[in-house]
Design brief:
It is a single chain. With about 220 residues, the protein is α/β, with parallel strands linked by helices. The chain has 8 helices and 9 strands. The strands form 3 sheets. Strands 2-1-6-5-7 form a 5-stranded parallel beta sheet. A two-stranded antiparallel sheet has the order 3-4. A two-stranded antiparallel sheet has the order 8-9. Helix 4 crosses helix 6. The structure holds adenine. The site of adenine has 12 residues, from strand 5. The site of adenine (ADE) has 12 residues, from strand 5.
């Protein structure tokens, strides 16, 4: 899978892309993440990527020319361009799974008041939000999306099962987990987990997951999700 990221701040990605699961996925050649600095496609001395909005008002708007040039130079034909914006459709596990099935996609990270509308009209295939709050730019949302997608690419997670059993697939929260020691600061691991009875353990986990879901996120099971 190839992921092209178009941003004004490519350095922000250094940490998340070079640690843990994404690092391994890249090293194994399972994903090819490419960063592109939108400012490299400006032509003035100050590398100007934004400008004041027509009609007035606060904030700045990303200019169309560098974004068009960057997309035309680096995004392969037919690859969907996804714009990260709080105005997009919410990122869900289902959407991450859908993107994990693609050969590649490109992410455009906005900043300031957003991008010139002509970028959306002519280049953007889809807009995605990571939640109903406003961040300074699309970089953190792009990292969240890349993490959620890359771990679903076949071969990335050592244990294929672990991706399937956890929260949201199916629409339930996860059960509690314990490891050694059996007693820690007076708190015991539930007896059933030590019993060796796999049927009982599976039942307990299912019940715990359902209880948690009802307590914390009843919306997941009543069709609102
Ligand atoms: N850019 C700024 N805030 C965002 C959000 N919540 N989701 C996606 N992109 C954003």
């Amino acid at each position: 899978m190839r992921i092209d990221i178009l941003t004004l701040f490519p350095q922000m990605f250094a940490g998340p892309l070079s640690e843990s699961m994404i690092k391994l996925a890249r090293e194994r050649g399972l994903v090819d993440v490419r960063l592109h600095d939108i400012r490299d496609y400006t032509h003035d001395k100050h590398r100007t990527a934004d400008d004041r909005p027509f009609g007035g008002g606060p904030g700045m708007v990303l200019k169309p020319e560098p974004i068009f040039e960057c997309v035309e130079a680096v995004v392969p034909q037919g690859t969907p361009l996804i714009y990260m914006t709080p105005q997009g459709r919410p990122l869900t596990q289902a959407k991450a799974g859908e993107l994990a099935g693609l050969e590649g996609f490109a992410l455009l990270c906005g900043h300031y008041e957003g991008v010139d509308e002509r970028v959306r009209e002519a280049l953007v295939a889809e807009e995605i939000s990571i939640g109903d709050y406003v961040l300074t730019g699309g970089e953190l949302p792009a990292m969240v999306l890349v993490d959620a997608v890359v771990r679903l690419v076949p071969g990335v997670l050592g244990d294929e099962e672990s991706a399937q059993q956890e929260s949201f697939s199916p629409k339930n929260l996860d059960c509690p987990h314990y490891t050694r020691p059996e007693v820690f600061r007076g708190r015991r691991v539930p007896e059933v987990l030590l019993s060796g009875n796999h049927g009982e353990i599976a039942r307990w986990r299912r019940e715990q997951a359902e209880k948690r879901t009802q307590e914390r996120r009843p919306d997941l099971t009543n069709g609102e999700f």
